[in-house]
């Protein structure tokens, strides 16, 4: 099956990431990590607004109390897209070589977020779980590039990408306690496939992976079998999220970072935001209840 992938924002983002759909406003929210910018895109009127966070931002997630929570270099900050972000949960503030990266929230409103070294040093990062009361615990250590996180339909499994491993891993997940066990490989990507980056789970339980360096998004069945692969006209595919009024649009973020002149010529839309309709629907994300 061939799917049309449409360039909807010719942005040339250095590191587009962390997309999610604001159903109330019918807008896509995403960030450019390197620029420290949060974007809102309205497909109904083709509008694009930018808000500067003042420093690199690894993720911007919805808050149940309103506004967003930002994963910054030294912790989590709340922000209503005006004024200055307010630090509410320092994480690795004593590790200046690190920053927070991708994150998402589980069904009880806990925020799961990982860290990585600015220079991508192997094993320098961790994965953390932040409770609604803002208490924080380290869940995994010796992480290299902490990336996509998601859960199966009944919240008994958690999927996780540490990009440098080339694997999508899965854990048994206890929603009540927020604990992980039984880590094992769910799917593996070859060097030619690229590194697993952002992750989302659709309404049928399919697991979608952005392939950084591989120029594709990939859907796996709940059993871990490759079910669909969609080529994207940008080699560094970073993340993906379902949106639209019926959750049937798949938005895809990409990056232009570290591309030389020849690569930019081959991929002139690198750093853009793309959209396709893969024939399955997504699910609303869970907000942070902190």
Tell me about this structure.
This protein has 290 residues and is mainly β. The chain has a single domain, classed as TolB, C-terminal domain (Neuraminidase, 6 Propeller). Helix content is 2%, strand content 51%. The chain contains one helix and 24 strands. It has a four-stranded antiparallel sheet, with no helix packed on it. Strand 11 and strand 12 form a beta hairpin. The longest helix has 6 residues. The chain is globular and about 45 Å long. 46% of the residues are buried. The mean pLDDT is 95.
Radius of gyration: 17 Å
In terms of DSSP E residues, the strand content is over 45%
Number of helices: 1
CATH secondary-structure class: Mainly Beta
- N to C succession of SSEs: EEEEEEEEEEEEEEEEEEEEEEEHE
Features of the shown structure:
290 residues, mainly beta, 4-stranded antiparallel sheet, 24 strands, 2% helix
Gist of the model:
The chain has 290 residues and is mainly beta. It has one domain: Neuraminidase, CATH 2.120.10.30.
Summarize the SSE layout with pairings:
Elements (H helix, E strand, L loop, with lengths): L5 E4 L6 E7 L4 E6 L4 E6 L4 E6 L6 E4 L5 E4 L3 E5 L6 E5 L7 E8 L5 E7 L7 E6 L5 E8 L2 E6 L5 E6 L4 E8 L4 E10 L6 E7 L5 E6 L3 E5 L5 E6 L5 E7 L5 E6 L6 H6 L6 E4 L14
Antiparallel strand pairs: 1-24, 2-3, 3-4, 4-5, 6-7, 7-8, 8-9, 10-11, 11-12, 12-13, 14-15, 15-16, 16-17, 18-19, 19-20, 20-21, 22-23, 23-24
């Amino acid at each position: 099956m061939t799917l049309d992938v449409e360039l909807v924002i010719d942005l040339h983002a250095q590191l587009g990431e962390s997309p999610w759909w604001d159903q109330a406003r019918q807008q896509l929210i995403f960030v450019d990590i390197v620029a420290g910018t949060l974007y809102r895109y309205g497909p109904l009127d083709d509008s694009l607004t930018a808000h500067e966070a003042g420093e690199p931002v690894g993720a911007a997630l919805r808050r149940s109390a309103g506004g967003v929570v930002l994963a910054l270099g030294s912790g989590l900050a709340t922000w209503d897209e005006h004024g200055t972000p307010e630090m509410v949960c320092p994480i690795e503030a004593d590790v200046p070589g690190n920053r927070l990266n991708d994150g998402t929230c589980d069904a009880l409103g806990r925020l799961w977020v990982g860290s990585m070294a600015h220079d991508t040093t192997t094993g320098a990062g961790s994965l953390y779980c932040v409770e609604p009361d803002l208490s924080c615990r380290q869940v995994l250590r010796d992480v290299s590039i902490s990336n996509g996180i998601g859960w199966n339909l009944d919240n008994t499994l958690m999927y996780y990408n540490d990009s440098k491993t080339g694997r999508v891993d899965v854990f048994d997940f206890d929603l009540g306690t927020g604990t992980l066990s039984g880590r094992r490989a769910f799917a593996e990507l070859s060097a030619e496939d690229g590194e697993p980056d952002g992750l989302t789970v659709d309404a049928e339980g399919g697991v979608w992976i952005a392939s950084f360096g591989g120029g594709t998004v990939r859907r796996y069945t709940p059993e871990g079998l490759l079910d669909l692969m969609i080529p994207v006209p940008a080699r560094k595919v970073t993340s993906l999220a379902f949106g639209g009024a019926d959750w049937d649009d798949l938005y895809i973020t990409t990056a232009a970072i570290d591309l030389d002149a020849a690569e930019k010529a081959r991929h002139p839309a690198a750093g853009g935001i793309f959209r396709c309709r893969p024939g399955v629907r997504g699910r609303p994300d869970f907000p942070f209840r902190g």
